[in-house]
Amino acid sequence: MSRLAAKGLEVGYGSERGARRVLHGLDVAIPDGVMTVIVGPNACGKSTLLRTLARMLPASAGTVVVDGRPTADYGPKELARVLGLLPQSPTAPDGMTVADLVAKGRYPHQSLLRQWSRRDEEAVAAAMQAADVAALAQRPVDELSGGQRQRVWLAMALAQETPLLLLDEPTTYLDIAHQLEVLELARRLAREGRTVVAVLHELHLAFRYADHLVVMSEGRIVAEGEPSAIVTEQLMADVYDLPCRIIPDPLTGTPLVLPLVGTVGHPGATTA
Amino acid sequence: MTTHVLIRVGERSVRFRRRVAWVLLALAAAAVVLAGIGLMLGDYGISPGQVLAALTGGGDDRLAAYFVREVRLPRVVTALVVGAALGVAGSLFQNVTGNPLGSPDIIGFTTGAATGALVQIIVLGSDTGSVAIGAVLGGLGTALVVHLLTRPHGLTGQRLVLVGIGVGATLTAVDKLLVVRASLVTAQTAAQWLAGSLNAVLWPRATVVLVAVALLIGAAFALARPLQLLTLGDDTARAVGVPAQWVRTLAVLVAVGLVSVATAATGPIAFVALAAPQVSRRLAGTPTSGVAGPALTGAVLVLGSDLLAQRLLAPTELAVGVVTGALGGVYLIGLLALEWRRR
């Protein structure tokens, strides 16, 4: 059984009447100890799913179960010791140092009278090491480059030492080299035994890094499994309305999507 | 990590930055020195030796002992406690709103407490005890109104500041109306109270304020760490297990309590809640303000201002609110200019 699973999830925004359903009775079981990547077109509900799994959004029906217990039964700190979330584009106050920010990840393990144990110190040092930000420890977060900053936020989530780690579009606004840095780190964490779930936009990277791929469309999961087993030209056409060729990536063998739009002779293309 | 001081006793531990520790020590020392001066100065001059003797129960100058213990000490204690209350309230509000202008004196809560007290003084014609109740009710009522007006968005950001300024302006008009409609004698009492003054504070009032503020600041300490995490945004805070909305509501209630108690004790003392958290943050070099720093800064500001108010035009005593108002006006202009330049 998966440590993280959901059954019959219904999530909507807005008031009772005229509410917009975003997830429609969705079932999902996240495989343990591997990297799961969720993809899908804009507004398909992938971030909503991730945030509902992390209990950031309330589900109007259905349950999210962590280690056999509904998350609704967990205390706030209790859940934060098992499940971590890196939200979309987080911000730190001006002048806060990297070391201070990463240390905040220890909050669920601390209390008013136990503010800083040796265990906290070790966890923060290990997290900064793993995310390769130890050298930046005394720098203010707002002075770092986008890639460094994202690694710092990852380090904060790592300091939380949760077996489950959810990443909401961790590569948005990063250039390709920094995207790869973040994904390499995420994969390394999965290899070390954590369960990692990431929402990604870049299909080429998603297929390369996913051990388990979840494809969503209009609030439902339409395909799930190993990328090379499930990604087909038909699936891309159905989900993204995108005519394409799919070839194996010459370096990794994972699926590579080549859109037909923009090629010579394709109907509707701007031909040179 | 050599930048931090760590105190660890068995399982228990507290941690703070080295520079913060020094700043706190310096502020505490300043408070002690000012308190000493406060006990010495007055129309009846008392030497440091006599002050010490009076405080420790010795000494043969019974008049000096009386002035120190029964007249000046309650005033000094109230100044420190009210200053601490205002500083902490300001820090809580600024953390909740994420805005240095989101202080109770800007967003109308101090005015609300004053309105509550004025209703007690003028309309109900009551004594000092129930003035306090009026101030607390006024403060909470204002918080409720502002909360309802900003409701879909919660107590955050620019909207809160703008709504608060509007509510504050309306309440100022109400205050003026109340004073105009009052009889000459009550109007005089009300005007005196409105200026914010520590004149004639004796032990009974000082003790009540001390106990109430101590309890509320204790609560503020408990809220400080989760509140700091809210400065990283609600999502991040909730991801590490902070019940964001709950913490924010409690912080507002504690802050309104502090402002109301302080206002009830002395009348509105302007600008301390606005300035103390920012001054202490700059001194300590930290990105956000906590509890201990603003408390000590507020205490030093109010006590220092009160000494100025007492001695500047002696033997005529000014109201402490006049001095903090003058100092704070300069500070507010500086703050606005700074914010403007950053845009």
From TrEMBL, chain A:
PROSITE patterns in the cross-refs: ABC_TRANSPORTER_1, ABC_TRANSPORTER_2
All residue ranges annotated as the ABC transporter domain in the record: 6-243
Compartments in which it is found: Cell membrane
Domain of life: Bacteria
Entry keyword annotation includes Phosphoprotein: no
SMART domains reported in the protein's UniProt record: AAA
Keyword Acyltransferase included in the entry's annotation: no
GO molecular function annotations of the record: ATP binding
Major site of localization recorded for this protein: membrane
Signal peptide as annotated in the record: none
A Pfam family annotated for this UniProt entry: ABC_tran
Keyword annotations: ATP-binding, Cell membrane, Ion transport, Iron, Iron transport, Membrane, Nucleotide-binding, Transport
Membrane topology type: Peripheral membrane protein
The protein's name in its UniProt record: ABC transporter ATP-binding protein
Organism per entry: Nocardioides eburneus
TrEMBL record, chain B:
Membrane spanning residue stretches: 20-41, 76-94, 106-125, 131-149, 202-224, 250-276, 318-338
Keywords annotated in UniProt: Cell membrane, Membrane, Transmembrane, Transmembrane helix, Transport
Cellular location(s): Cell membrane
Main location: membrane
N-terminal signal peptide: none
Name of a matching Pfam family: FecCD
Membrane as UniProt keyword: yes
Keyword Cell membrane: yes
Membrane topology: Multi-pass membrane protein
Similarity remark: Belongs to the binding-protein-dependent transport system permease family. FecCD subfamily.
Protein's name according to its UniProt entry: FecCD family ABC transporter permease
